[in-house]
Write a structure and sequence with these properties.
Structural class: alpha/beta
Largest sheet: 9 strands, mixed
Radius of gyration: 16 Å
Strand content: 25-35%
Number of strands: 9
Order of helices and strands: EHEHEHEEHEEHEHHE
Length: about 210
């Protein structure tokens, strides 16, 4: 059993998935596994995932869906397959800073909290950096500035205290639904001012739909 499971839904992300895994490969905290769910991609994503798994030192599980179910249900499949103490989430076109897991886990231990998130940076479709979004507290996180498409990219929660919490299976904004379910249970989330993730803003992505 790993300390943390990182859940990644993947759909037609052949241009970005390697960058996502570069951030995971560089993590300074190593007691984690990766569960990536290919949501019936029609491009070369699945083959790239198998190649990454074969060449990586990370503990990676690739789950192939037999039909497209959407990112919410794909994450749920990954959550069901996990057996770790903590769950963290990343999207296949986004990526993390190398010390993301280490700093966030230490932050949660210091605060004694069951749910946390971090601030983040944004880049455009080509990877050019655009800016930093600082989320100081739960109220600011739910503002349009902080959570405009960010979803679960920076979230981590303690499964031992919360249990496994599954996403609504709606096609859009299911990540907001997960946050509301979790907050209803734990009441408070703690945010880190330091940006530890990069959110890629793509005009045609699901998260860009308001």
């Amino acid at each position: 059993m790993s300390k943390i499971s990182v859940i990644i839904p993947c759909y037609n992300a052949e241009k970005y998935i390697k960058k996502c895994f570069e951030g995971l490969e560089k993590q300074t905290f190593r007691e984690f596994d990766v569960i990536v769910v290919d949501d019936f991609s029609t491009d070369n994503s699945l083959n790239i995932l198998y190649e990454i798994k074969q060449n990586s030192k990370l503990k990676i599980k690739v789950i192939k869906m037999k039909q497209n179910v959407g990112p919410g249900e794909a994450r749920n499949v990954g959550i069901k397959a996990s057996d770790s103490e903590y769950l963290a989430f990343c999207d296949s076109d986004d990526y993390w800073m190398p010390d993301k897991l280490e700093k966030q886990l230490a932050f949660m231990a210091k605060k004694g909290c069951v749910l946390s998130y971090t601030s983040y940076m944004t880049c455009d479709e080509n990877g050019d950096m655009k800016g930093i979004v600082v989320c100081r507290n739960t109220e600011s996180f739910f503002s349009s500035k902080c959570n405009n498409g960010i979803g679960c990219l920076t979230a981590m929660y303690d499964v031992r205290k919360m249990g496994k919490i599954f996403m609504p299976t709606i096609r859009k904004r299911q990540d907001w639904g997960l946050w509301l379910i979790i907050l209803r249970k734990c009441r408070v989330a703690y945010g880190m001012k330091e940006p530890l993730a990069v959110y890629r803003q793509r005009p045609n992505s699901i998260s860009s739909n308001k």
